[in-house]
Structures are given as structure tokens and as C-alpha cells.
Amino acid sequence: AVRAVVFDVDGTLADTERDGHRPAFNAAFKESGLDWDWSVELYGELLAITGGKERIRHFMEKYVPAELGRSGLDDWIAGLHRVKTKHYVSLLESGGIPLRPGVARLIQHLRDRNIKIAIATTTTPENVTALLRSALGEDSPGWFDVIGAGDIVPRKKPEPDIYHWVLEQLGLPAEQCMAIEDSENGLKASLAAGLDTLVTVSDYTRSQDFRGASAVLSDLGEPTQPFTVLEGGVPQ
Ligand code: XBP
Ligand code: MG
Fold first, then answer.
1. Domain check: are 197 and 226 in the same one?
2. Which of 42, 57, 60, 123 is least crowded, fewest Cβ atoms below 10 Å from its Cβ?
3. Which residue's alpha carbon is nearest to atom 16 within ligand 1?
4. Is 43 in the same domain as 132?
5. Which PANTHER family match (predicted)?
6. Residue 150 pLDDT > 90, yes or no?
């Protein structure tokens, strides 16, 4: 039986990319005196690179390579990214982003059944707690047995490191856990760590390659029956 469900965050718990992270990056660029502006379309392309700092560096390499000559480039990117996080967290605190359909219900269901819940994400830890607090209430970060986020592992998704870290903290083998992801990069990470994975597609990820997923769904929906599938294994 499934003893833990491991949730991805961006795109899975909530649709955070287009109207959350993207405007926060743009606000940080503006605040830092940069004339960079990431459109909805460009951002879709940049999402191939996971991690905000890594995404900024990739953008610079591809579109503004002259800027790579800045002294202390790593620290400069990290500083710019801290400004981005500040904007993103304040957007969440103003109640900006709701959870996707069925997410709150599934979390409640799992808690009722004493099935562990965990997070495995590439995004920054503060972003995760801000999202959970704003969408599920002040105490909700404490409902999660493990929250694995950001730079806690050196290699981000599609590498499996964050899932390995979460499994290790849970003290459970991959066979007793399932993952919920929304992207090809996320799916590659969870599969490589050995977790059966349910994919709920998001606007940016709809046409990606989800081979290997246990199921690919539009969202977690609002079933009239409880999630009995979680008792016997993964949904087919
Ligand atoms: C999505 C990501 C993150 C976010 C931005 O993570 O790749 O980089 O786009 O957040 P996941 P940061 O789907 O694994 O939750 O700027 O904090 O990295
Ligand atoms: Mg995701």
C-alpha cells in the first residue's frame, strides 16, 4: 500500500509559474535596474531549466551574454534571486495564488488516513511555506512529514536527488511512496528515484513527454468517491 505521497509544488499544488514566479522575476529585474522582461512565451522556454538562479544564468548565457562579465557573478545572481523571492512571497501573502482543483481535498484525505505527505520541489523553501500558509492556513506546513526544497541538494530536477533526500528523511522505500508531478523534468526526477508517479498537466507542460507516468490527468478533480486507489497502489 502507499504509505506516503510526495507532492511537487510549482504547477502541481498550484499554477504558480505564469502569474506568480514570472512576474516576480520581472519585478526583481526592474527593481535591480535591468531592462529584462520575461514574456509568457519566453518564460515557457526558460522553464526547461529548473531553479530560479539556474534559470537566470541560462537566460543570460542565451540572451544577454555580455552581462556574464559581471564580477562576482554567482553572488550577483543569488542577490537578484533573493529580490525575486521577496516579490514572490509578498504576492502569495496577498492571497495571489489558489491551489489547483482537488489538491486540498487529497491532502485532507491523506491526513485522515494517516498516509504521510511530503514535498519535493526545486523552488525556494520560503516559497513553499508561503504558498501553504496562504492557501491552507498558518499551521499547514506542519502537516507535512518532510519538505524537501531548493538548494538542499546540489542537482535539481530532472535529477532524482531531491526525491532521494525526501525518501531518506521519510525512512520509506520508493515502492511505498507515490509522487504527483506536473512536468517532464519533475517526472524524470521521481521516476529515476523509483516512485510511481501521477501527472496532473499544467498549461506550460501539457504537450511534454510523460512516458512512464502511472496516469496523466488534467487535474486532481473532485471525485465523488474517496481515493480508494491509494490503498491498493497507484491509479491505473
Ligand atoms: C519549479 C521550478 C522553480 C520555480 C521558481 O519547481 O523549477 O525554479 O520555477 O522557483 P517545482 P525558484 O516544479 O519542482 O516545484 O525561483 O525559487 O527556484
Ligand atoms: Mg512542477
1. yes
2. 42
3. 52
4. no
5. CBBY-LIKE PROTEIN (PTHR42896:SF2), XYLULOSE-1,5-BISPHOSPHATE (XUBP) PHOSPHATASE (PTHR42896)
6. yes
Residue 62 has pLDDT above 70, yes or no: yes
Active site residue 74: no
Burial class (CB in 10 A: 0-12, 13-18, 19+), 22: buried
Give how many domains the chain has, as a whole number: 2
Domain extent at residue 46: 17-93
Peptide bond into 158 cis (omega under 30): yes
CB-based pocket (< 6 A), ligand 1: 8-11, 17, 21, 50-52, 84, 121-124, 127, 157, 183, 186
